[in-house]
Each structure stands twice: as structure tokens, then as C-alpha cells.
Amino acid sequence: MSHACAHALVCPAAAGLRGAAIALTAVSAVTSAALAEQAFRKLTPAQITARLGGMEITDGVHWAEQYMRDGTFKAFHMGKASTGKWYVRNGELCLAAAKAEAECKEVWLSGTKRVEFRVPGSALPPMEGVVQKQEPRN
Description:
alpha+beta, Lipocalin, 2 domains, 8-stranded antiparallel barrel, 2 helices, globular
């Protein structure tokens, strides 16, 4: 003979379901907060200067760009090194290598390390990397 609860608020089975629902709601809230925290946000000109000066951005394998505090940069792309000046113009990070036109891109940050370079109007996907302390490179 099965036992049905007449009052769901005092029924042990219903209490277990309520506990599971509360736990699921808490996990969902934490997951949503973590995802929101990791969303990319576009950096302002002041944030670009403050965050990149003295640091480098790299994908860890194919390329690295080092941004010196004096406004110069060193880039290492697929084993080739280049140098030039970096600056912020119209809310974008611009790199001007010797004898080349400046290339500018938006800088987006997720958390404190994940970076995307985005070129407005471009069909190319964002270039992804991490911001870190500069490492010795050749």
C-alpha cells in the first residue's frame, strides 16, 4: 500500500524535492554569475594604456606583442620580430611598425587575462590571446 502525502510542506519526499530545487537554483545563479564575469568588455582608451603598458599579449605559441611603457612595441609573429610605436586612437590600439601604415584594433578583455583584438567591420574572427608579464624573447 503506497503512502501519499496529504500536506506537501511536511512530506519528506516533497522536502527532498524542495531541497533539490533550491540547490539547482543556487548552482544556476553561481554559473550565471561566473559566465557574466567572464564576458568580454571593450576597453576604454585609458584602460588600454593602463592595462597594456609594460605587458605583453600572446597566444602562447605563434605570436607575442610587448608594449613598452615608453610607447614602443616589439612583436614576434611566427618567428619574425618587428618593432615600432604603439598608441591609442579613437578607442583602438594602434601599432605603427617602421615604414608601414598603422594597424588599429579594438581591445576586449574577459576577466583579467583573456584578450580579443577585434577589427570593426572585418569579417575576420577576433585574434585571441592572454595578457601577461613580458617574457624574454629573441
